[in-house]
């Protein structure tokens, strides 16, 4: 079996001398060989910058992106002609639990297909992609699908 290793670098500079309310949550993340650096922060509920992405959003994006790529691979292999894919995903962070955790991720892709495409086949391929999605398989919370298939 082949193993792939993924590494990243997260960098924060500042001071925590002023206590919890005063330190900056903004930081950067990068992952070679990608050239793009992400500017990140905490969720605004935790005193973060609302203009920047936060780790909870990135978790949701990772699940959504993994499903998209798995689905496109399977769809192309099965001969489905997919024209577009847009996923409005959401994660639920429950701060009343111990430990605090994301308790559910809902992926709601809208998939545009060629006229005459069997929507049930598209949904079956999506479900197979979901079962093979290694991000969803890694998470310790349910990842639920609510797909919509659209024909012209």
State the main characteristics.
152 residues; 2 domains; alpha/beta; 3-stranded mixed beta sheet; GMP Synthetase, Chain A, domain 3
Walk me through what this model shows.
This protein has 152 residues and is α/β, with parallel strands linked by helices. It folds into 2 domains: 1-53, no CATH class; 55-150, K homology (KH) domain (GMP Synthetase, Chain A, domain 3, 2-Layer Sandwich), CATH 3.30.300.20. The chain contains 3 helices and 9 strands. The strands form 3 sheets. Strands 1-2-3 form a 3-stranded antiparallel beta sheet, with no helix packed on it. A 3-stranded mixed beta sheet has the order 4-7-9, with helices on one face. A hairpin with a 7-residue loop joins strand 2 (27-30) and strand 3 (38-40). Helix 1 (55-78) crosses helix 2 (119-132). The protein is elongated, with a radius of gyration of 19 Å. The relative contact order is 0.14.
């Amino acid at each position: 079996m082949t193993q792939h290793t993924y590494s990243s670098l997260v960098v924060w500079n500042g001071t925590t001398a002023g206590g919890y309310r005063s330190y900056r949550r903004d930081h950067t993340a990068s992952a070679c060989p990608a050239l793009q650096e992400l500017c990140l922060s905490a969720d605004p509920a935790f005193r973060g910058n609302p203009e920047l992405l936060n780790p909870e959003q990135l978790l949701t994006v990772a699940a959504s992106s993994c499903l998209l790529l798995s689905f496109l691979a399977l769809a192309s292999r099965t001969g489905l002609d997919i024209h577009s894919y847009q996923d409005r995903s959401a994660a639920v962070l429950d701060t009343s639990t111990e430990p605090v955790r994301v308790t559910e991720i809902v992926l709601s892709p809208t998939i545009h297909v060629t006229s005459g495409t069997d929507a049930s086949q598209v949904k079956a391929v999506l479900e197979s992609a979901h079962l093979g999605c290694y991000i969803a398989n890694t998470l310790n919370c349910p990842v639920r699908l609510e797909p919509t298939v659209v024909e012209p």
